[in-house]
Each structure stands twice: as structure tokens, then as C-alpha cells.
What we know:
By secondary structure, the chain is of the alpha/beta class. It has a domain at about 1-205: Amidase signature (AS) enzymes (Alpha-Beta Complex). The protein has helices at about 1-15, 25-35, 80-85, 130-135, 155-160, 195-205, 245-260, 280-295, 310-325, 325-340, 345-370, 390-395, 400-405, 440-450; strands at about 20-25, 50, 90-95, 140-145, 160-165, 185-190, 235, 265-270, 370-375, 410-420, 425-435. The protein has an eleven-stranded mixed sheet, sandwiched between helices. Helix 6 packs antiparallel against helix 14 and helix 8 packs across helix 10. The chain is globular. The two termini are about 30 Å apart. About 55% of the residues are buried. The structure holds glutamine (GLN). Belongs to the amidase family. GatA subfamily. This is Glutamyl-tRNA(Gln) amidotransferase subunit A.
Amino acid sequence: QATRAYLDRIESLDGKLHAYHEVFAERAMERARDVDAGKLTGALAGVPVAIKDVLATQRGTTTCSSRMLEGFKAPYRATVVRKLEEAGAIILGKTNMDEFAMGSSCEHCAWGPVTNPWGENRVPGGSSGGAAAAMAADMCAGSIGSDTGGSIRQPASLCGVVGLKPTYGRVSRWGLVAFASSLDQLGPFSHTIADAALLLKVMAGHDPLDSTSANIAVPDDLDDVDIKPEKLRIGLAKQYMSDQNDPAMNEAIEKAKQVYQQLGAEIVEVDLPHTDYGIPVYYIVATAEASSNLARYDGVHYGHRTTQAEDLVDLYSRSRSEGFGDEVKRRIMLGTYALSSGYYDAYYLRALKVRRLIKQDFDSAFEKCDAILCPTTTGPAFKMGEKTDDPLSMYLNDVYTVPASLAGIPGVTLPGGFADAEGQRLPLGIQLLGPAYQEAKLLRIARCYE
Ligand code: GLN
């Protein structure tokens, strides 16, 4: 019944929202019947979930919302997909995203943009906007996204749902199409912290197929979010409390601070002096890695192949020109430039050094507090088309999410309030950041606010 209900909802709403690229209705019902017959059991038996189209699934295609991978059928499934299926989850379909996970609005999507369920002229955020919109519109019971510089947390904020980016290394990236390998991490969207914890517990763990997945045990009580953290210290950083933020966002943080105070937490001030370098460092590291990762799409190894080529070089060049969208091309050019000889030391190497300083900021901050409370975004969902002609203003949108990505630490976004934007009531997400591999505690802290 649950699977049928979600499929019906997709049927009636997704024509407008466009969160899904593909829906596996028949297969989902087959699996649901197996659950009813007791043939399929596990922690997620019968739970209908949606998967961002950046993860390899054996069913359907894996396109990353790119013409480059149109019709691409993965020969294997991602570890995360396997774990979800083995736990009994029912995969409803694949969700739309910014092409190759590059973007903050889901407007860079080869099959057309995704709409925010809270307002038809508003973006859902990105790049996991389809997964966030599907969650917000109750077109799934949980969904999976990827977060390289904020792609789970930012759309969660703009769509009013919970979004969790785990510690880098907590979840296997095997079968996740690579954007920036030192930053990419998979995580869940949900309505509640308890659901996010359960999904993470299923997804997490060491995987010999991913050399960067950590051999650190996943706590058995990870999903026990009602354990109350003791002697709680919440950190606030002045670098995140700009008066450029929408006033409603600063009010949401103030309200959350009061809630924690009432619960007996100590509020401490922490200093994250390198916050402002987050955006420039991220857009050098991420584009450099992307330019290398995307070299494989040449029309020969993988992906779209032109029908017009005159010789081999022309085949590469035309296939890539036809297959990639503008934002992806921009990133490849930026990254290739940053890595080119003569510029490597000035840009890439320097960015790596500043990345280390950003990580050290967090290390010192977590000596004084258990979690940092901060905004996820400066404000609510922006209008479609508002930032498409100005890539820099789109990039600046990630100011509060990229530092945690660069440091590899976990972060969770949860609904924190509403902003009034030209008469529209739009959700806002607050963010809690915690030390590496402390997701269990971070989620318990988040649960106290919920
Ligand atoms: N918006 C950021 C970017 O465009 C983050 C994307 C992501 O986390 N995948 O790179």
C-alpha cells in the first residue's frame, strides 16, 4: 500500500515538479509484494526510497542528468544501492540533479529543471535537488543524494527537509559517479532525524571496493537518536552570522540557540577564521579534480559519441562539446587551468594548504564544543533563472556548506523556520556540524532540537 501510494503521488505531482528522471513502478510493486509475502526482510523492508541519478543502478539508466550519459546502463550497482536493497528498501526511481552534481539549483539538468514543491517559480537547490524535492513533496519515504560542497545540505534547507552529509569515508563511494573524489560523499534525505540515522546506518561502513572508505566501525546504536547528550556544548561562529544573511535565517539560529540553552547546553563562541577562503579553495580543488575525473568521457571509453568526426582528435572534441552542458565545460576549463604547469603551485597547491588551515579551524573549534550551530544557506530558495547568468553568485551560495566538505566532517541540515519571500512562505534549514565520525552524537544533538 505504501509503495502504491508513493507511486500514485509521483504520478500526480511529478509532471509539475520533475524530481524523477525514471520511475521503476513495476519493479517497485514486485518488491512490495515480496515484502508482504515475507520474502524480503531487513531494517528497511518495504520502505520506498528514491536514488539520485549519480549512483549506478542495474535497473534503468545512470545519466547524472547529462546528455553525455544518455541511455547509459551501468554494468554493476553502487555499494550503497546494494546495501539499501539488501536491507529490503524499495527503489522507486532515479532523481534529477545538476549535471554531474555541479550546481546549486537543479537548473543545469539536461532534461529540464526541477521545481521546488514550496513555490513553482523557486529552485529546489542542488545538486541533489530532485532527491530533496521528492522528499519534500512526499514522493518517497527517504532519498539518497551526494554532497561534494553542500549538495545534500543546501537543497534540504531550501526544501524544508532533513539532509545529512556523513564524514568523508563513512559511506562507500563505489558506484558513485565521481565529481571531486576527495570531497564526494553520499547521504540521506528524510523528514526526521531518526529516519536519517536509520538510512545512514544501512548505508555506512567499510568497503574494500573504495580505498577511501574508512575501516571504522559503525556504532550499533547509531539509529538510537533519543539518547540525550550530556554536558552539551554548542559552538557559534561569528563568521557564519553575517548581516548579509536573510534576517529570518539569523532568527532561526537565535531560536535554535535558545532551545539548546533551555535544554541546559552551554553556548560557546568559536572562531573559524579561514571561513572566507572556503569558496575559492573549494572551486579550485573541486574543479581540478573534476577536470581529471571527467577526462574519461571521450566518446570512446564512455559516453556520447559524435557521428560527425573527421579524425580522432575531432571525435574527442565534438563528442565532449555535444555531450557536456555549459556549467560542466566551465568547470573542466577552470580545473584544467588550475592544474596546468606554471599555475599548479600558485592555485592548486596553495588551495590544498588553505584547505588544511580550514580543517585546523574545525579541529580547534571542536576542542571547545560538541557541535557547531550555523546557517545552511544565507536565505531561502531563490527564483528560477535568478542566478543562471551569474556563475559567481551561484557559487557564493555554498559559502556555509563548503568548509565542512573541505574538512571532511559531518553536517546535518534540519528545518529551522520560514522566511517570507515576496509573499511566499519558504523553508529555511539550520546546520549542525560535528567532529569526524561522530555522526551518532551529532544526530542526537539534532534530535534535541527537532
Ligand atoms: N553547489 C556546489 C557545486 O556546484 C556543490 C555541489 C555538490 O555538492 N555536488 O559544486
